[in-house]
């Protein structure tokens, strides 16, 4: 199964595309419901803390939610996040992936491990934010 290509703005307003990361061994794309909520903040901080380990393995980590580019920018500043956060404010990607929560109007907490060619290696659904970054890192290591 292939991860859908995308063209979304990051927290700095830069347009990002899936194929821009094809020089990486893997791409971790994690979807979260909302900036500055307790669980989402924990998850983002833990991915930020592990970012050096991911990068040393040739892996990029990207967070995606339905909040605006400005909301992501504020979230990064407030919590000193070093991640790339993409805004799927039109909910196109999350609907294509089938992870849109109609009840809450946000992305379901889901993480994808993607190869440079777009092939999905693993999917984590209904993620618990605490310890998730570490679990993903350990799985990535097992795949190298």
- Quickly give the CATH architecture: 3-Layer(aba) Sandwich
Structural class: alpha+beta
Radius of gyration: 14 Å
Q: What is the overall pLDDT average? A: 96
Along the chain, the helix and strand elements come as EEEHEHEHEEEEH
The amount of beta strand, in percent, is 25-35%
Strand order of the largest sheet: 2-1-5-4-3-8-9
CATH class division: Alpha Beta
Helix content: 25-40%
State the end-to-end CA separation: 20 Å
Number of domains: 1
> Can you count the helices?
4
Shape: globular
CATH topology tier name:
Glutaredoxin
Walk me through the structure:
Strand 6 and strand 7 (106-107) form a beta hairpin. The chain has four helices and nine strands; from the N terminus they run E-E-E-H-E-H-E-H-E-E-E-E-H. The longest helix has 19 residues, at 38-56. Helix 1 runs parallel beside helix 4 (132-143). The chain has a single domain (7-143), classed as 3-Layer(aba) Sandwich (Glutaredoxin). Strands 2-1-5-4-3-8-9 form a seven-stranded mixed β-sheet, covered by helices on one side. It has a two-stranded antiparallel sheet with strand order 6-7. With 144 residues, the protein is an alpha+beta fold. The protein has helices at residues 38-56, 69-79, 92-97, 132-143; strands at residues 7-10, 15-17, 26-31, 59-65, 84-87, 100-101, 106-107, 110-114, 120-125.
Considering the chains and any ligands shown, give keywords for the structure:
144 residues, alpha+beta, Glutaredoxin, 7-stranded mixed sheet, two-stranded antiparallel ribbon, 4 helices, 9 strands, 33% helix, globular
């Amino acid at each position: 199964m292939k991860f859908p290509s995308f063209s979304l703005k990051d927290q700095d307003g830069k347009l990002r595309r899936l194929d821009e990361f094809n020089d990486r061994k893997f791409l971790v794309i994690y979807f979260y419901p909302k900036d500055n909520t307790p669980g989402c903040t924990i998850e983002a901080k833990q991915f930020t803390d592990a970012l050096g380990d991911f990068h040393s393995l040739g892996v990029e980590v990207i967070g995606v939610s339905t909040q605006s580019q400005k909301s992501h920018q504020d979230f990064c500043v407030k919590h000193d996040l070093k991640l790339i956060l993409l805004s799927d404010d039109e909910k196109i990607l999350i609907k294509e992936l089938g992870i849109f929560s109609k009840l809450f109007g946000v992305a379901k907490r889901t993480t994808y491990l993607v190869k440079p060619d777009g092939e999905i290696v693993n999917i984590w659904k209904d993620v618990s934010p605490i310890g998730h970054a570490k679990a993903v890192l350990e799985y990535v290591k097992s795949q190298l």
